[in-house]
Amino acid sequence: MAELKIDALVFDVLGTLVDEPAGLRAGIRALAPSHGPAPDAPGTDRLLLLWQRHIEREQRRILDGERPYLPSDALDREAARLVAEAAGVEDPAAVAELAGAARRLPPWPDTVAGLARLAGRFPLIGLSNASRTALLELNAHAGLRWHQALSAEDARAYKPDPAVYRLAVTVAGRPPERLLMVAAHAWDLRGAQALGLRTAHVARPVGDPPAPSDRFDLCAEDLADLARQLELPQGV
User: Fold this and answer.
1) DSSP 3-state assignment of 8?
2) Taking the model in full, what pTM does it have?
3) What CA–CA distance (Å, rounded) separates 154 from 130?
4) Rounded distance, CA 34 to CA 32, Å?
5) Most exposed among 3, 28, 184, 209, judged by the fewest C-beta atoms under 10 Å?
């Protein structure tokens, strides 16, 4: 690790620190309990996939210049309406409650303790595609500890647009190669890598694993493993 000189850690949030599918499933089950009580009920997963595909498609359209920028909470409202329609739910209050599920996402079991341990050594910067308002509620709900939380809304773009990673570089006031981007999504790390940031992949069940051609600086099983690789003693 001697060659990896890091001044700050930059964390993706959705999927990396919080279990986004679990939170959305809970919202969907509350909207349409007839789709099954189990988290993996086929109807629930079908509606979850509808939500995820909408968000992915519309963020890509924004990145490609096919529609004007909208913050994540606006896209979540669109996704919630689609899911409610597919579930046969018309109550506007229920749809609004479902849209809010995107802000009530549970942390992974190692997240809170891992961030606390890492924060004893490094400044921590959250860098999320979530809007400013959504990120505030996500942080509060999941108990995430930051020194700075940045929303892609400030760049009016979505990762992997370079403008989003540049937010972290500007706030840190350090060269990109002195920042370590931590994410469960290989596509996110590739975006950071293109701007010169160092990279660490953290394995998550809902993440995007590295391809054989990827060359990330670190690959960790969880945040505790990341701390070990960064040579943090257990008590720090």
Assistant:
1) strand
2) 0.92
3) 11
4) 5
5) 3
